[in-house]
Amino acid sequence: MDVIDCPKYGSIIYHPSILPRHRGASAIHNWIRGHDKVPGAWTEINGQMVTFYGSSLLNSSVPPGEPLEMKGAKKPGLVTKNGLVLFGNDGKALMVRNLQFEDGKMIPASQYFSAGEKSVVELTAEEMKVAETIKAIWAGILSNIPTIEDSTDFFKSGGGSMDVARLVEEIRQKCGGLQLQNEDVYMASKFEDFIQKVVRKLRGEDEETELIVDYVSKEINEMTVNMPYQCFINGQFTDADDGKTYDTINPTDGSTICKVSYASLADVDKAVAAAKDAFENGEWGRMNARERGRLMYRLADLLEDNQEELATIEALDSGAVYTLALKTHIGMSVQTFRYFAGWCDKIQGSTIPINQARPNRNLTFTKKEPLGVCAIIIPWNYPLMMLAWKSAACLAAGNTLVLKPAQVTPLTALKFAELSVKAGFPKGVINIIPGSGGIAGQRLSEHPDVRKLGFTGSTPIGKQIMKSCAASNLKKVSLELGGKSPLIIFNDCELDKAVRMGMGAVFFNKGENCIAAGRLFVEESIHDEFVTRVVEEIKKMKIGDPLDRSTDHGPQNHKAHLEKLLQYCETGVKEGATLVYGGRQVQRPGFFMEPTVFTNVEDHMYLAKEESFGPVMVISKFQNGDIDGVLRRANDTEYGLASGVLTRDINKAMYVSEKLEAGTVFINTYNKTDVAAPFGGVKQSGFGKDLGEEALNEYLKTKTVTLEY
Question: Which stretches are transmembrane (predicted)?
């Protein structure tokens, strides 16, 4: 019981199940959820008793809605698209999800003013048979009721929570696998209402609005490839706000694949607003961690089920060799989502023993919480894999995201958006905005509602992003930037393996690889033989159509990048480096470049300092036995993303790995990344980690809670 002091009537005693007066939002929230199992948290609305279910504190701004007067409330509630907002006397608010009326009918609180608008549907002969089957199931459960009538109420007739589970399962078994939720029974507890709900579900009328996708379709690679090309905002594909588009180009022949929506500032703002609403008010913010993981597992399955189509799109849009795209671009994306799906319910804090102030005792613990809206900006070399590396950790942590794919490779990101809807992700959780870095990317870095930005790209752009993030709202930033990764090859290596590893370190994915070996240091006594063998192997490589299964080397990603690589090679020749092989564009349609080898590269040269990000092997020799000397040369760079060492001497390998200034060191291997291993650079290669448990920390904040008892 509770007591209110009233100046007119003195002390009034009232039952605690009635909406508490003069209470804060937190007290009202606890009062409602405390009565969820035993109905009793109610108030009077329009002359009838209405019971509240499913309360959550509203930590964001109050969404717009229609006022609703209710007895016992300090001020009218608001019926919004997310539920019923109630206000405490402390200026804070809470959201109620469901309402139940005196006759037992339960409705979503958001439908209070429209609950009775649906007309009664006429049943077909087939649907009548389903209704009779369900009536028999009701009769079996409610055995104390002689006849199931249209007006029979499941709960007033003795049905309980275990009976609800039985009803749902029996209907699934006896009605062709029809999948209902327990909540469906509570929402339609009278038999006639329940049959109407079942029939609407059978007809698809109760489903979420179907995703409408305008595809560009192509018959290619022995399949039909369907590619979305519009912005994806708040669960829907839509044209850019100003209608602008741009061409995305197939680098194999220079042809236009399709016109893609070119996101404007207004589109970015809409996407961020949708992500913010989904985080603060939507189902995603209330979802438990295991359910979040279940959605991510489902999305991983859909990526795998569609891997051939996704790999074909990667080949079309980025020039990736199809077999490599299948294994790495798509394969590792699937693995990444599965790995982080498993982390969803294992994100936890810790208890901390602190100094006690006698006679009181204290409990201190930490909580790991999501940040909110996260922006992700990815590069063009691994379009889907870079998306997965960042967005999987972001989503596992419970955030929502706005992702900008590279302007030249947007298509797999938009296909991913389509699959996320099929996986069941709520609206607004994932948003994809194709367009330019100068407009969309810059707006994301400046946006006050974005709490974290993850970027992979060049060092100069990373510096600009970091400035913008600091100047706007000090949003958290992680950056994976440029590299000039050294690979040191000692004369005691296995030479055959060294040739294979060296070529893979440079030419993997056409050299468009952030950890590509930007400079090879080869010990003097094996230098000439190493170069000879590399050239022999290059001559065996097949350059051509990335969809041809026998192709080793596809086109560079886009024309501007090819031109940059050709200029890079010209600079090397002018500075006096020896062009041993390649250095030219392949004479065929598209943006193909010959695999290239330079030797006699001295430390002061442009080739020794700057990243090519292409199929250019830069070789420098070092004196036999000069371990410390080659280490000084390898570390003489502002970059520190990756590095490698090839030697049979384990002591030498460990010494070199300790001295190399890089986020990753490969010993007798290269390009060996794994979803469980943290990945990221040092120095001007950036900071923060993708992959592994450490990646989760990039998308979480730690809250410390101390209480006295």
Answer: none
